[in-house]
Amino acid sequence: MDSLHFGWEEWIGLPELGLPALKAKIDTGARTSALHAHDIEVFGPAAKPKVRFNVYPVAGQTQVQMTCSAEIKDRREITSSNGESELRYVIETTLEVAGQSWPIEVTLTDRSGMTSRMLLGRQALQDHISITATEKRLQPDLSYDVYHSAAVRRAAPQRALRIAVLSREDNYSTRRLVEIGEARGHTVEVIDTTRCYMAINTMAPEVHYDGKRLPRYDAVVPRIGASITPYGTAVIRQFETIGTYCVNGSAGITASRDKLHAHQVLASKRIGMPTTAFAASPKDTGNLIGLVGTAPLIVKLLESTQGKGVVLAETKKAAESVIDAFRGLRANFLVQQFVKESAGEDIRCLVIDGKVVAAMKRTGADGDFRSNLHRGGSAKTVRITKDERDTALRAARAFGLGKAGVDLLRSDSGPKVLEVNSSPGFEGIEKATGKDIVGMLYDMIEARVKPQPVRKRKG
């Protein structure tokens, strides 16, 4: 390593923390280096804990904030120059100066009043570094402009994230989200949505869980059952208020879960779907059937999931009987055209981050027009057409969903959207296609929580 000559202040970089440019004060009186951070928070397993913290890299400014994470190496009592003792977390990271780099230990402390974001102590100053205390910045200058450009996003390291999965079920999809997330070095916590409660106020909105305030999460993956949609989406709205990245937003989940609302959204975007009619309590069942066409017809409960509450009425008389039965139960339902040419098959397109990442054809069990895998249907991978791909993407976009299962029927007049599912399961489509769908979901999450460049203020 070449010899370096430092003044009492130098430009440095901490690339592993996503901090490419910092001004550091050289402090030969201190053994360990210190980084001035705030919102310091421990997370991860007790056997291998991590720490997450925020840094304002530009001294005296709070517009630019970088979120960093690292493994905890130690916790030590540090005495500052004014004699105050403080227990600090110690991390190890790489210091970069003038194209040279080496590992250093850094303690984390919340001392926002300090003008220097970083103090470099003796341990960081290698034997080949000489110090001239009367000089300033003898190494090449860097610039804070890097935080205002896309370069900071491209160069940002893959940091450990803290992710919440909102789920009440220990099923394949939830287990895969935990397994793949932890394999990538993230901490994934499964939260029972119904055990969350909320502090709603303008200054500090919070989500509480089992008597404690939930920590700040980098991302939330909602997997909310249909039976708790109203409360589940309220919890997601609270995370949105806090500013947490949610894979699917509350508005999109709410609209997609209500079949009437969903069909109205699809119609407003001119997305193909089977002809549909709805009424709360029509006096004339015949008129309702006439709006859709002739039998056979599909009659669906608005709250139906996994093929439950979906009936095929093969004749007009059968349709009238089913409608009368649903009305007798005071149930909300819709009547829909039966696409005969689909022959008990549909196509599930899985959309992640504006791309169809996998597609499978689902075929109903013998004698069943419903193709749901939960009802004994089978699935295999399928090649979809450009029209089908575009329809699936437009449908997911119409609800603003980052992750969606779009179910299509192949009709003589082109693809028809049957349903947009905001909490699609991963088991069927991963097994049918052999693709790592959950890994693709994490690719999106990791890209979305990378730091964003901050625009400079004019003037």
From TrEMBL:
InterPro entries assigned: Asp_endopeptidase (IPR008503), ATP-grasp (IPR011761), ATP-grasp_RimK-type (IPR013651), ATP_grasp_subdomain_1 (IPR013815), Peptidase_aspartic_dom_sf (IPR021109), Rimk_N (IPR041107), Rp_bS6_RimK/Lys_biosynth_LsyX (IPR004666)
Record-linked SUPFAM superfamilies: Acid proteases, Glutathione synthetase ATP-binding domain-like
Domain ATP-grasp: 263-446
This protein's record includes keyword Transmembrane: no
GO CC, any one term: cytoplasm
UniProtKB keywords: ATP-binding, Ligase, Magnesium, Manganese, Metal-binding, Nucleotide-binding, Protein biosynthesis, Ribonucleoprotein, Ribosomal protein
Any one Gene Ontology BP term: translation
KW Ribonucleoprotein (keyword) present: yes
Top-level division of the source organism's lineage: Bacteria
Record Gene3D superfamilies: 3.40.50.20, Acid Proteases, ATP-grasp fold, A domain, ATP-grasp fold, B domain
Required cofactor names: Mg(2+); Mn(2+)
One function term, GO molecular function aspect: ATP binding
Family: In the C-terminal section; belongs to the RimK family.
Protein name: Probable alpha-L-glutamate ligase
Species annotation: Pseudosulfitobacter pseudonitzschiae
Gene that specifies this protein: rimK
